[in-house]
Amino acid sequence: MTWQEIKDSIIQDLDSRGLKNSSIRKNALNKIEEIFKLHFPYLIQNPKEGFGKIEKNEFKARIAKYKPNGRLNSAESSIINEIYYRI
Q: What distance in Å separates the CA atoms of residue 30 and residue 32, rounded to the nearest whole number?
């Protein structure tokens, strides 16, 4: 699966769940994607191989380091869970 296919799949799933405000998670997806582009471009280029090399919780900790407050919010954490589910 390409990064765009993963992203589209997550968006489609968020839209189909009937969430009260799916835009919060969509915004989180976009923020996570920006961090990927800046600091982990190999994940965009080859997601299956890239995500396969690192455990999910360790990856969450690495991503959090690039946030101003050093923490992921629940929507961002959920999005990373969704990514790993699709890999």
A: 5
